Amino acid sequence: MTAPFPSVAPPPRLLLGPGPSPVDPRVLEAMARPTIGHLDPAFVAVMDEVRAMLQPLFGTSNALTMPMSGTGSSGMEAAVVNLVEPGDRVLVGVNGVFGGRMCEVARRAGAEVVRVEAPWGKPLSPDDFTRAAAGRGFRLLCVVHAETSTGVLQDLAGLRTAADAMGALLLIDAVTSLGGVPVELDLHGVDMAYSGTQKCLSCPPGLAPLSASDRALRRIAERTHAPVSWYLDLSLLSDYWLGKRGGGRAYHHTAPINMVYGLHEALRIALDEGLETRFARHEHVARGLRAGLAALGLELPVAEGERLPQLTLVRAPDGVVEAAVRRFLLHERGIEIGGGLGDFAGKAWRIGMMGSGCTEASAEQCLLGLAEALRAQGASVVDPMDAAREAWRA
Ligand code: PLP
Known about the structure:
Blueprint: E1 14-15, H1 25-31, H2 41-58, E2 64-69, H3 72-83, E3 89-94, H4 97-108, E4 112-117, H5 126-133, E5 140-144, E6 146-147, E7 152-153, H6 159-165, E8 169-173, E9 192-194, E10 207-212, H7 214-221, H8 234-241, H9 257-273, H10 275-295, E11 311-315, H11 322-333, E12 335-336, E13 338-339, E14 348-352, H12 360-376, H13 385-393
Parallel strand pairs: 1-12, 3-4, 3-5, 5-8, 8-9
Antiparallel strand pairs: 2-10, 6-7, 9-10, 11-14, 13-14
The structure holds pyridoxal-5'-phosphate (PLP).
């Protein structure tokens, strides 16, 4: 019998949504290299290099800095199930989808969850957390650094002090921030952070880089019960990624070898570019994109100064069918952008300019495509590129 289907032939797509982002060809090429064993000394050397290259991305010297097998959500689960024991009180900042998901993960881990809400599209302040704690002790304070559902950048300054006042460890979701904006775990006293490979690292989805401070590791060592997840148990994973106390690597699960090659190459690309240069590129492209969007008469619901450069929320004007614009872009131009979620469902688009997809050329294709899509719905719009180019020249 022959295979009933031909080989997968993905259509050409420019990925300008909330992720995945365009994968650098160097990453795909690295992933196509021969698979070797997960305990082969040659692979262990690659693992050590991945750990070493993740540290500057996370702005940390944490020894336990490594990728979890699984997408960003595996990092979220790992952080929560390792730091929380049933009955612990956990404070979670919720101003979009992913804060809500953290609440659910913590609830399932047996935590007593207290939500600290801000309107979608607005960041939270350290005072919001202090007020919600109301003098009670908490095990964990959680916040989303880059809320992909709204494009809000959460300032981390002051959160360590707020966490200390309630005796909490500080956990951040850095899925969309890592590689696009500075993360700086050590500067902000963050105890644990997790990310994903498919956003500003421009690697396919499949790994969740995670970093844990010594304080977080002490908390894990003091647990009275083992974490409910064996697969995500950081103590066991540490014996594989860092090695056992007596030396040597202990098999835990078979690492996704070729994904690790891909992440290795993605990290080399980020460090070769230089992190400052990379962050400045994201800012630069966003400046032109925002100017072009303004020229199209489109409104950005997130206030200036609180916006992520790598993810822009755009309000769909009255009279324009939001989903029809996305359909036009995908089917007529091969461009993927995201729709709004939650409070913004059916009312906004999310445009991602992430990693290797973050270029003036991508922004131009997106702006011109949007202009055509709006015209197709009868809107009268000007060419957005004059404004975009002027912003890029400034
Ligand atoms: N956290 C944030 C901020 C995200 O943007 C995402 C995915 O978009 C996740 C968590 C979950 O990651 P994944 O879909 O890779 O499991």
